[in-house]
Each structure stands twice: as structure tokens, then as C-alpha cells.
Amino acid sequence: NKNRHISAVSSTLEQKILDKQNISNLEKKMSELSDTNKKILSYLVDTSKIDTFVVYLENLGIENNVTLSVKSVEISKNEKNKILVTLSMKGDFSNLTKVIGLLENSPFSVNIVSSYLNKIIVNTTEVTDTPKNKSKDTVSVVNPSWQSDITFNVLSL
Predict the structure, then answer these.
(1) Which residues contact 137 (CB under 8 A, 6 or more apart)?
(2) Is pLDDT above 60 for 137?
(3) What is the pLDDT of residues 9-32, one digit of tens each?
């Protein structure tokens, strides 16, 4: 009887130790899964918080000296979990291409559908006074700027 009792207590103890190890492993896996879930959610735009995504896009333009305006944001009814966004930007060529590159490499899952880049040339004339001749000279100055329209999809929740 004594040996049976010791054997039963021993096997129960081993089972409890195994259960405790399994619970410990499960807690570790749950925390890893939680971190992975947060990382995945950071790649998706929450449709109830689309305004924060629009602010992110506008700040992207401000930080790179580009006049950026969000023309439209449409939640696609044909395709689930996609938002169609149309942007219009104006600025220097280098700044525009930088913003487009940052948009492509943003933390969100962005798929650019179309992108148009147009050069806008504005001719202005400057009048300068010349003190020696007491006349005014007119000089034609070309101020090139660029305009871009971009349409892209971003994955949403």
C-alpha cells in the first residue's frame, strides 16, 4: 500500500510539474503572438480611424516641403479590406520623388495603382532698376515646379 501511495503521489507530482511547464510555455507563446498581432495590425489601416492615416499622409508632405492634399478616400465595396486613396502633390521634383518613395516604403501595405508626374513651367518677368541708365530691365525667369497625382490601395481592417 505504501509503495502504491508513493507511486500515485509521484505520478501526480510529475503531472503537476508538466502542467506548470506547459502553462509557462503557453504564456510565452501568447506574449509572442500578441507582439506579432500588434506588428501585423500596424501594417493595416483601421477604417474607423482613417483620419489618423490622412494626417500621416499630410505630415509626410509637410516634412518634405511638398504641398500634399488628399483628394479622396474610398472604402472599396467590391474588394474587402482595401481603401482607395487619391493624392495630389506639388513641389520640387526631388521632394516629390522622395515622398513617393516614402509612401511606397511606408509601414502600411500600400499598392500604388497609378502615378502621374507633370512639370509645370511658369514664366514670370522681373523688373530691375539700373541706377546708371535710369531705366528698367525686364528679365524672364522660369520657375519650374512639379505636380503629381497618385492613386493607391492600402489594406485595412
Answers:
(1) 127, 128, 130
(2) no
(3) 888 999 999 999 999 999 989 888
The whole-model pTM stands at 0.62
**CA dihedral over 14, 15, 16, 21, signed as positive or negative:** positive
Indicate the burial class of 82 (C-beta count within 10 angstroms; 0-12, 13-18, 19 or more): middle
Residue with the three cell numbers 526631388: 94
Strand, helix or coil at 74? strand
Rg (CA), the chain: 31
Which residues share a beta bridge with 117?
148
Q: Are 119 and 144 a contacting pair, CB within 8 Å?
A: yes
pLDDT digits 0-9 by tens, 79-89: 788 888 999 99
CA distance 46 to 81: 10
**What DSSP string describes 104-136?**
HTSSS-EEEEEEEEEEEEEEEEEEEEETTTTEE
**What are the helix and strand counts (H, E) for the chain?**
3, 4
Locate the DSSP E strands across the chain.
Answer: 67-75, 82-91, 110-130, 135-155
CB-based contacts of 28, cutoff 8 Å, min separation 6: none
